[in-house]
């Protein structure tokens, strides 16, 4: 790949960003589909590709013990204040080419722009005072181990070591997967930024990401500033009834686990429709023994429930657990559940968000503010550092789907805004 800077030709840079995302999309577990789970083999290829770009930018490159790829551009030494910019490189199964990885590729393009700006403007002040760390988080979606944000939790110092015993669908423990990738799970604590001294040097974290929803397209807007990210709960349920012969077992003598689960799934949907701002999804379902002439004995399924109010979210989680119990008991079945995530809603940092909004204004773009219905690494980072997010329009409002896309002119606008944001930050950092 030719990394020569196209100077400040932002349209050429936008084309390069899109080409990069499409090239990275080829690095997949499933040829013909984009699937890249936590520390699976294609992640090595992504690391090699992005590391080459980081080295070409004069960054020091490392992979931390949870598999985050981190490039640090620190032109003048440790006294410079550090802005972290990044997003995740793992994907959902059969994903689009931009969720997560766009934010990493945009970040590297911004480093290149900063280098050119500083070289062009001989902006010694910026050189001496602003350091940039680009982070490609190893696991945000929570697909392989049903627990999201592993990469950002390690960097923010909130990783729970108990998770290392979790097993994936093939029975591979998380710590074994980390070792198989060539990393040492014992060293995850070292991934945290300045674990001992706090983070005097960190200005904050910026994540640029596709909106993954219909709002910006409906309002014909290119970009938005995120003011908050909804809280989310993820649970796994297991309904256990009695497998039996589909022909000889009268209806009143059955303990049909799937019938219980089905009644509950309809309740999930109707509850979510009844409460403004609530979304609830049963995305995974596995039934046993899964044969046409056998009454299902066991059903395992997932619940993903989100709302901007943590009180509302907690209320409906408790309600739906009770609803699962009554749907099961009606049929002489049992139900058990396990909480995999309880992520509070998060406000973005007002100061950093204001600077981002001002950068939009400076580029002549309306600074639409909006909440994020999708979870992001920024919500984990916000617990430790000032965090801000920039959304890019999602054509068709489609995401977590191969039709996911992003417009070239919106990528160009995001680069202009990001460059303005960095320049303003460099001018104000003390
Ligand atoms: O599921 C989410 O909200 C995000 O796309 N990981
Ligand atoms: Mn994402
Ligand atoms: Mn996603």
Unreliable residue runs:
none
> Globular, elongated, flat, extended or rod-shaped: what is the shape?
globular
What order do the helices and strands follow? HHEEEHHEHHEHEEEHEEEEHEEHEHEH
In the CATH hierarchy, the architecture of the largest domain is 3-Layer(aba) Sandwich
Under CATH, the homologous superfamily of the largest domain reads Zn peptidases
Biggest sheet statistics: 9 strands, mixed
Taking Cα atoms only, what radius of gyration do you get, to the nearest Å? 23 Å
Structural category is alpha+beta
Walkthrough of the structure:
This protein is an alpha+beta fold. The protein folds into two domains: 305 residues, Aminopeptidase (3-Layer(aba) Sandwich), CATH 3.40.630.10; 113 residues, Alpha-Beta Plaits (2-Layer Sandwich), CATH 3.30.70.360. It contains twelve helices and 16 strands. Strands 1, 2, 3, 4, 5, 6, 14, 15 and 16 form a nine-stranded mixed beta sheet that branches. Strands 7, 9, 10, 12 and 13 form a five-stranded antiparallel beta sheet that branches. The radius of gyration is 23 Å and the shape is globular. The chain starts with 9 loop residues before the first helix and ends with a helix. The model has no long low-confidence stretch (mean pLDDT 93). Bound molecules: (2S)-amino(hydroxy)ethanoic acid (HGY) and manganese (II) ion (MN) (2 copies). The site of one manganese (II) ion has 6 residues, from loops. (2S)-amino(hydroxy)ethanoic acid binds next to loops.
């Amino acid at each position: 790949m030719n990394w020569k800077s196209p100077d400040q030709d932002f349209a050429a840079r936008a084309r390069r960003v899109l080409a990069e995302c499409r090239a990275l999309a080829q690095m997949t577990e499933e040829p013909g589909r984009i699937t890249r789970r936590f520390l699976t083999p294609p992640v090595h290829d992504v690391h090699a590709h992005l590391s080459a770009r980081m080295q070409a930018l004069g960054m020091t490159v490392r992979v931390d013990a949870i598999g985050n790829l981190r490039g640090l551009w620190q032109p003048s030494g440790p006294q410079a204040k550090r802005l972290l910019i990044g997003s995740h490189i793992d994907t959902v199964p059969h994903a689009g080419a931009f969720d997560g990885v766009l934010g990493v590729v945009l970040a590297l393009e911004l480093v290149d722009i900063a280098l050119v700006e500083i070289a062009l403007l001989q902006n010694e002040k910026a050189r001496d005072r602003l350091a940039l760390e680009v982070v490609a988080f190893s696991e945000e979606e929570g697909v392989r181990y049903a627990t999201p944000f592993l990469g950002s939790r390690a960097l923010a110092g909130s990783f729970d070591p108990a998770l290392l015993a979790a097993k994936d669908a093939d029975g591979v423990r998380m710590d074994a997967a980390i070792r198989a990738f060539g990393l040492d799970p014992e060293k995850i604590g070292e991934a945290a930024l300045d674990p001992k001294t706090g983070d005097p040097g960190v200005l904050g974290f910026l994540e640029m990401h596709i909106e993954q929803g219909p709002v910006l397209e409906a309002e014909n807007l290119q970009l938005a500033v995120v003011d908050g990210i909804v809280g989310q709960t993820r649970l796994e349920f297991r309904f256990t009834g009695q497998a039996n012969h589909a022909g000889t077992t009268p209806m009143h003598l059955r303990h049909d686990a799937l019938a219980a689960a089905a009644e509950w799934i309809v309740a999930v949907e109707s509850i979510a429709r009844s409460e403004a701002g609530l979304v609830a999804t049963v995305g995974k379902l596995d039934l046993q023994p899964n044969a046409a002439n056998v009454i299902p004995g066991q059903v395992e399924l997932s619940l993903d429930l989100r709302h901007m109010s943590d009180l509302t979210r907690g209320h409906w989680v408790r309600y739906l657990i009770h609803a699962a119990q009554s749907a099961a008991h009606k049929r002489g079945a049992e139900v058990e559940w396990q909480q995999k995530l309880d992520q509070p809603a998060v406000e973005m940092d007002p100061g950093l968000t204001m600077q981002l909004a001002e950068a939009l204004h400076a580029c002549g773009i309306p600074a639409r503010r909006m909440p994020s219905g999708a979870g992001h690494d920024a919500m984990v980072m916000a617990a430790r550092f000032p965090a801000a997010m920039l959304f890019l329009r999602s054509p068709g409002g489609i995401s977590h789907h191969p039709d996911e896309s992003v417009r070239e002119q919106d990528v160009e606008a995001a680069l202009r805004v990001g460059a303005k944001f960095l320049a303003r930050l460099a001018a104000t950092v003390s």
